[in-house]
Design goal:
3-stranded antiparallel beta sheet, globular
C-alpha cells in the first residue's frame, strides 16, 4: 500500500483560522447547504466500504466551497478514516485509493 503525506506549505496564502471541526462547522454554516456535498448526500458515502463509493465521495468533494478547510483540519487532527476534503484517510494519513476486501490479485496487470 502506498501512503501519501500531504503537508500544506502555502506561506503566501493568508493565515486562516485554526482548522478545527468547530471552524469547519462554522464556515459550512455560512455557505448554502446545497453546495455542501456531505450535507446533501448520504453521510455514509464518506466512510464507505466499496472503493467505487469512496472514489465517488472524493469526486463530490472537488467542488465543495469548504474543501480546503476540511482537508487542512483532517490533516491536523490525523483523522482515522474516511474521505475528508477530497482525500481518503486511513490511520491518520492520506492514501491514494481504497483497496477492495480480500487478498490482492497475483497478476498486477489484472488489478
Amino acid at each position: 500500500m502506498t501512503i501519501s503525506v500531504l503537508n500544506r506549505t502555502d506561506t503566501a496564502a493568508p493565515k486562516q483560522a485554526e482548522p478545527t471541526l468547530g471552524a469547519l462547522h462554522d464556515r459550512a454554516g455560512q455557505v448554502d447547504e446545497d453546495l455542501l456535498p456531505c450535507r446533501i448526500n448520504n453521510p455514509e458515502l464518506w466512510f464507505a466500504e466499496l472503493p467505487v463509493d469512496v472514489e465517488f465521495a472524493k469526486t463530490l468533494c472537488q467542488d465543495c466551497p469548504v474543501q480546503a478547510l476540511c482537508l487542512d483540519g483532517a490533516l491536523e487532527r490525523r483523522e482515522p478514516w474516511g474521505v475528508w476534503g477530497g482525500e481518503l484517510f486511513l490511520q491518520g494519513v492520506v492514501i491514494p485509493r481504497k483497496r477492495p476486501r480480500g487478498r490482492p490479485r497475483k497478476d498486477e496487470a489484472a488489478a
